[in-house]
Amino acid sequence: MKLTRRQRYLRSKSFLYLAVVVTATFCVFPFYNAILTSLRSGQDLFLPNYLPTTFVWKNYINALMVNGIARSLLNSMIVATVTVGGCLLVSITASFALARIKFRGRQGLLFTILCVSMFPQVAVLSGMFELVRFLGLYDSLGSLILSYTTFSLPFTVWVLTTFMKSLPVELEEAAIVDGAGLWVIISKIFAPIMAPALVTTGLLAFVGSWNEFMFALTFTISGENRTVPVAIAMMQGSSQYELPWGNIMAGSVIVTLPIIILVLIFQKRIVSGMTAGAVKG
Amino acid sequence: MTTKILSLNTSLVRPQRNKRSLQQRRARAAWLLVFPALFLLAGVAGWPLLRTIFYSFTDAALDTPEVYNFVGFDNYLSFFDGEAYGVLGDPLWWKSVRNTLWFSSWSVSIELILGMLVALLMNQKFRGQGLLRAAVLVPWAIPTIVTAKMWGWMFHDQYGVVNDLLLRIGIIDGPLAWIASPTLSMWAVVFADVWKTIPFMALMLLAALQTVPADLYEAARVDGATAWQRFTRITLPLIMPAMIVALIFRTMDALRVFDLIYVLTSNSEATVSVSGYARDQMVAYQEMGSGSAASVLVFMMVAGIAASFLYAGSLYNKEKQV
Q1: A46 to chain B, closest Cα gap in Å
Q2: What is the pLDDT of residues B84-142, one digit of tens each?
Q3: pLDDT class for B4, splitting at 50, 70, 90?
Q4: Structural domain count, chain B
Q5: Could you say which architecture CATH assigns to the domain A68-280?
Q6: Contact assignment for A150 to B44 by CB distance below 8 Å
Q7: Hey, CA dihedral for A45, A49, A54, A58, is it positive or negative?
Q8: Could you say which residues from 105 to 134 on chain A have a Cβ atom under 8 Å away from some Cβ of chain B?
Q9: Distance between CA atoms of A1 and B127, rounded to whole angstroms?
Q10: What's the confidence (pLDDT) of residue B19?
Q11: Under an 8 A CB cutoff, do A256 and B245 touch?
Q12: Contact B302/A120, CB-based, under 8 Å?
């Protein structure tokens, strides 16, 4: 039987929506499952259930206070903010030069920066360990700010450079004709126009620092200096064989929600920042 | 202020010469502008990398890095009584190399296929597009450690939802030990990684898809091309450059995997990656020397793979021009 045009249309539409629902469920389900688990306690934890059954908030209080998630949230906030702020500050001038000025060695510099942003963190681990100890930063947040610069800085320089390249050249020409020096051009013209790009780049770098694990695990020991990922990874129960899944999931939800909210608010910007380096470059 | 007016005057008199000197001035200023960033990078990346290479030739221990002897290439490979020692003589190192390559190739290729499907879906026009994009961004926003814990819980052999779902559908007869079994644990790691990084792949490919002009599809449709032909003849060639970039980014990222494996399968021998191996040597066994040697080998391995990608890319470009 041949389908009519309308039937064909309906069939393809329903297929489309089925695919949408499957994709969305696949992406959101693990987090949904974590929320469900975080609201259960005792025996309820061990019965797989796909709808909320109980609403126990005890896990959240445990995770925040007993497991020290509250403290590590603060730590992560400090480390990520200082790292990103510092990197952005240095990146503005660097990316201006790399994007707008033709000078010898520019391509080489850009290539080096790209390479540094992709190289494995473990390659600098022992050298960084020595540096951290030499500066007396071992087991302090300073060690993390220092080591996070390794991957944050090349990232911010690279993304800001691609954004800077996309600005029209007339902007600068007009300023040069008016007699503005380089510093005036950067601080009075480019910095304000770049504000949205700075926010985007900053957000992406912030997420990167927020998620970092290897340096945080290696350079801090004491509980009060842990960042969020280390605190979550270290959550343990009363015995080796019993993991407090309720608490772990509550902690996971607490540390993830701020990022998810940020990402959803700025989703358009984030997507443009994520793809900026790749599509144009 | 006076200098500015003066320079403006000279520029009126001799525009030609001044233009060149403006270029030169800017080029000199450029180095000044990149200096702070370069200085920092040299300090936090260049110097530690050099020190890591340096330590790889010593027998330093982690708690006393200032006491060391040079041991040449012993940390890399040495023979004693016919037995091989050093990182390259360690079967676990080679196991971790195989693990890393296996993990990277499977997860990146699955991501590419699924990411492409999601990107094609997101490129359609339908109500609720914004909602789908928001949903797709969720895995990207979740920290890797949290991903590892969430999937660890879902893969739990007795209480996990993965086994529960598979049992309900009837694909398996009894619960599987996803985390403990040497063969399955690597797949568990791959699944978790694929889930976490599909958004990146999908959004990269979507951005590329959106640059394909719609009238190309229109013309192909008029000529009677099927959907598959439109995809392979129009879409794929046009998004190829962006796809290659996304692939390189993801491969580099997958090759240095550490945190997911460290938390999801506790760095078990069946899943340990090269980064995990190097860090274990250094921190767990306190052997800064052989840990550094392993780090240098990781670095060379990743750099080698990156270089061969770039070489293949340049060949591809050349071929296209001919």
Answers
A1: 5
A2: 888 898 999 999 999 999 999 999 999 999 999 999 999 988 888 889 999 999 999 99
A3: very low
A4: 2
A5: Orthogonal Bundle (1.10)
A6: yes
A7: positive
A8: 106, 109, 113, 115-116, 118-131, 133
A9: 30
A10: 58
A11: no
A12: yes
